[in-house]
Amino acid sequence: MIVDITSWKHVFKLDPDKTLSDEHLERICTSGTHGIIVGGSTGVTYDNTVDLLARIRQFEVPCVLEVSHRDAIVPGFDLYLIPVVLNSKDPKWIVGQHAEVLKEYGAIMDWEEVLAEGYVILNPDSDAARLTNAETTVDVQDVEAYARIAEHLFHMPIFYIEYSGTFGDMELVRQMRRTLRNTQLFYGGGIDNQEKAQAAAAAADTIVVGNIVYDDLDAALQTLYVVGLERKQYV
Amino acid sequence: MIVDITSWKHVFKLDPDKTLSDEHLERICTSGTHGIIVGGSTGVTYDNTVDLLARIRQFEVPCVLEVSHRDAIVPGFDLYLIPVVLNSKDPKWIVGQHAEVLKEYGAIMDWEEVLAEGYVILNPDSDAARLTNAETTVDVQDVEAYARIAEHLFHMPIFYIEYSGTFGDMELVRQMRRTLRNTQLFYGGGIDNQEKAQAAAAAADTIVVGNIVYDDLDAALQTLYVVGLERKQYV
């Protein structure tokens, strides 16, 4: 199945390194969300990724892998998202690791299933920013320049503003929505209630709800209301 | 005029920082070459770029700017090629300088006139490699991985193998031609006679003839024979 992400308004991001009960996983997968992104910054392995995929595959929800570790590239996902960290100070997060992976798998990859994501990571205190050595002291104009690189130089289908762990500047996010023409704008970070989900959904094309799934499932599920998705499990 | 580069087999690259007589410039511009790329690694300024453009514009040959300095972005070229040095160890040559330029000009750019080039610079002793801190100790598989990044992750119209100043490994270039599907393969470096032009033209889609223009114009013009271009000036 080739998934069309352009209709995605809301997705959950699940971390293979974190624990989720079967009951909670079922509530997430049958929530009406448009998709599940599997991915995380640390502790992601082939085994825990396979395991999570197999559990999600009991349900009909589209499931895509955000590839962050060469050792955790598991076949069987609907799509593979490849992060390119545009504000990293280390080229290995822009092209280096990608080249290593492609050196190994490039000849057998199905490029129809691969989407590049132009990432900008903006919370300096996050694992993601530390791991990728991201330059987080940027202003709206800097992020806008990255958005244009993603769309016009690299022709990426996704531009992803990641505040990982904290709720970001929605005025900045809205500005990127005005700057981008065709590239789809993902926003992730700190969406832990309905109000924040509403603000983020008004600014970005697609909102990504992550950590709150593990901290407060009911609050996580309430983020679906604001994008007009039915919570099928309660029908 | 929007130039279609896909038919380009042969181009000359002229350096604004080097001296060329009017007679020699005329012979180049009326040679039958498919285009002139204006660009250089060092000493390129707004003034010497404007000057060279104005002189080339006396002739009908397509003329494009390879942007390498933010201060030397001159309006009036047919196209703007933006180098992205995929094997640079410094992110400023991959996205950093691009972001700086786009921060200033992004809102007014005509993206129809802009083409990104995925560059791999392979001669460690060249100005270009030193300037960009290029990782030149790479094998065929590494370069193939960069080619796939250029084509499939970044959707670039051009992949450019640059041996700047020395004639490269044509077996490697041929392998990239086999790896790429739609992205156009440029080869530049050390083409200073007909035999090398023939070998390069058999391996790449487009050959770029540079330095020899300044050292031996007759030899430079002979590189046109091998790609079946008429030397109009002698008709």
Automatic annotation (TrEMBL), chains A, B:
CC cofactor: Mg(2+)
This protein's name: Heptaprenylglyceryl phosphate synthase
HAMAP family documented for this protein: GGGP_HepGP_synthase (MF_00112)
Positions contributing to sn-glycerol 1-phosphate binding: 13, 160-165, 190, 210-211
Species of the source: Paenibacillus albiflavus
EC number annotated for this UniProt entry: 2.5.1.n9
Catalytic activity of the protein: sn-glycerol 1-phosphate + all-trans-heptaprenyl diphosphate = 3-heptaprenyl-sn-glycero-1-phosphate + diphosphate
Pathway: Membrane lipid metabolism; glycerophospholipid metabolism
